[in-house]
């Protein structure tokens, strides 16, 4: 059965819901995220819940008025709510019936659905609210994180934007486009605390993700990035001064190519035995994007650096206009043994 059918059957009774939870244990173990909102990627590990945020609500309400007879009622977490079967999308079906609600009920509807699913899948699943709108309050719900997409260049009120970021419960992903702006964010901005960040920006200083990032994975695209900034990034990781949680960093430059050996020598890289195949660094992405790849691009490099504070190793690769940096959960001795 499709997930949509399983959910519909689960509303028949409490006993039916219990039976589904028991009979689908193996299937539910493969699910690692529940996404509220737009998620057009082919990802079998995700359950996608149709939930329009404020930027799409007017269109959503209009569609609801035009299709009155298609709606039916379900009891969700003790609340009677109107639903309809979701339209067949171009890429995939949604996995849950589409709720009907007014703008004023948005928070209570999300709360009811979230608690229903939390009881269904448990707290080991990652619950993500996906939105590209920053001027409304995100409800604080247990185990709910937020994924935000925006264009920093068109934001006029930076204080409101910072207030929105600080009011969000947990920032899972930030995806942003920055062009032709000198708007600065505070070094303490919650933007830099997102677990996953993907940026396209002209200048690496606006915002200064390369300097202030505190999350796990970053994919940064700059028009130009000076060699000294790449060197400073690696040295600050080596010293333990910054990037303590970092797992993976990809830095791509469109207008310049860093001199490979000069940068590697400047950061004090070490080299594995050139006669042996170096270990391959790759790990599961925090968030799957349009390329639909569940894992980071492999780093196969003889060059590596060691963090002074805990002897942790990171593979470093510079190829053409890219720097790739992958942190291993291994000490230097453990890392070198991988080649044996």
What's the layout of helices and strands?
Layout: H1 3-10, H2 14-23, H3 25-29, E1 33-36, E2 46-49, H4 57-66, E3 72-76, E4 79-84, E5 98-100, H5 106-121, E6 126-131, E7 144-151, H6 158-167, E8 171-178, E9 196-201, H7 209-212, E10 217-222, H8 227-239, E11 248-253, H9 260-267, E12 270-271, E13 280-281, E14 299-300, E15 303-306, E16 312-319, E17 322-331, H10 332-337
Parallel strand pairs: 1-2, 1-6, 6-7, 7-8, 8-9, 9-10, 10-11
Antiparallel strand pairs: 3-4, 4-5, 11-17, 12-15, 13-14, 15-16, 16-17
Helix pairs in contact: 8-9
Number of helices: 10
> Which structural category fits the helices and strands?
alpha/beta
Strand order of the biggest β-sheet: 2-1-6-7-8-9-10-11-17-16-15-12
Largest sheet, described in full?
Answer: 12 strands, mixed
Low-confidence stretches: none
How far apart lie the N and C ends? 46 Å
Q: Helical residue percent? A: 25-40%
């Amino acid at each position: 059965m499709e997930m949509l059918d399983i959910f519909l059957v689960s509303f028949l009774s409490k006993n039916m819901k219990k039976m589904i939870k028991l009979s689908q244990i193996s299937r539910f173990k493969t699910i690692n995220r529940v996404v509220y909102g737009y998620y057009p990627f082919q990802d079998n590990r995700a359950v996608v819940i149709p939930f329009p945020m404020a930027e799409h609500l007017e269109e959503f309400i209009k569609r609801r008025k035009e299709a009155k007879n298609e709606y039916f009622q379900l009891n969700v977490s003790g609340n009677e709510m109107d639903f309809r079967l979701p339209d067949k999308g171009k890429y995939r079906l949604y996995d849950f019936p589409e709720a009907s609600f007014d703008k004023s009920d948005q928070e209570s509807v999300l709360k009811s659905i979230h608690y229903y699913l939390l009881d269904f899948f448990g707290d080991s699943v990652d619950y993500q609210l996906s939105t590209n709108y920053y001027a409304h309050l995100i409800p604080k719900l247990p185990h709910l994180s937020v994924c935000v997409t925006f264009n920093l260049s068109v934001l006029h009120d930076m204080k409101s934007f910072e207030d929105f970021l600080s009011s969000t419960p947990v920032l899972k992903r930030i995806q942003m486009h920055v062009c032709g702006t000198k708007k600065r964010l505070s070094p303490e901005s919650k933007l830099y605390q997102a677990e996953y960040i993907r940026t396209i920006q002209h200048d690496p200083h606006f915002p200064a993700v390369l300097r202030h990032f505190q999350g796990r994975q970053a994919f940064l695209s700059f028009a130009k990035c000076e060699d000294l900034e790449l060197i400073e990034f690696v040295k600050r990781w080596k010293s333990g001064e910054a990037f303590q949680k970092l797992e993976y960093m990809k830095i791509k430059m469109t207008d310049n190519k860093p001199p490979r050996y000069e940068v590697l020598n400047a950061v004090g890289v070490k080299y594995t035995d050139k006669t042996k195949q170096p270990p391959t660094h790759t790990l599961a992405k925090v968030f799957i994007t349009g390329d639909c790849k569940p894992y980071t691009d492999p780093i196969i490099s003889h060059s590596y650096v060691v963090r002074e504070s805990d002897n942790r190793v990171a593979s470093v690769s510079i190829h053409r206009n890219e720097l790739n940096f992958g942190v291993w959960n291994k000490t230097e001795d453990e890392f070198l043994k991988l080649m044996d």
